[in-house]
Amino acid sequence: MDEDKIRAIRDWAVPIGLASFYIRFVRNFNSLVSPVTEVLKGKKFEWNDQAKKAFESIKEKLINALIRTIPNFAQVFKVECDAFGMGIGAVLT
């Protein structure tokens, strides 16, 4: 993976909203991020060590979870994309 892209993930600041776009790429994403979800449920946002650890874990999984392999051209390719006010992103699966 491109080092600039890895650096961009490592430098993500809190909160986790940006990472939730990648939910389909991280097994058990919701369980892993549950400490962050609990912090967001409170009346007052208080970032704690458990939430920070969960956030760092998600970032590491996004950086390291990619499987690098030659595509199987006998299967169908699928493009998933998302757009918002400042940019567009796409994933080829």
Provide a descriptive summary of the structure in words:
The chain is an alpha+beta fold and 93 residues long. The protein has a single domain, classed as Alpha-Beta Plaits. It is built from four helices and two strands. The chain has helices spanning 3-10, 29-32, 34-41, 49-64, and strands at 79-84, 87-92. The protein has a two-stranded antiparallel sheet with strand order 1-2. Strand 1 (79-84) and strand 2 (87-92) form a beta hairpin. Helix 3 crosses helix 4 (49-64). It is elongated. The two termini are 16 Å apart.
Layout of helices and strands, plus pairs?
Blueprint: H1 3-10, H2 29-32, H3 34-41, H4 49-64, E1 79-84, E2 87-92
Distance between the termini: 16 Å
The radius of gyration computed from the alpha-carbon positions, rounded to a whole number of angstroms, is: 15 Å
Instruction: Say what the CATH topology is.
Output: Alpha-Beta Plaits
Q: How much strand content do the residues show?
A: 5-15%
The coarse silhouette is: elongated
Question: Which oligomeric form is depicted?
Answer: single chain
Give the % helix.
Answer: 25-40%
* Class of secondary structure makeup: alpha+beta
Number of domains: 1
Mean pLDDT comes to 79
| CATH class annotation | Alpha Beta
Spatial sequence of strands, sheet with the most strands: 1-2
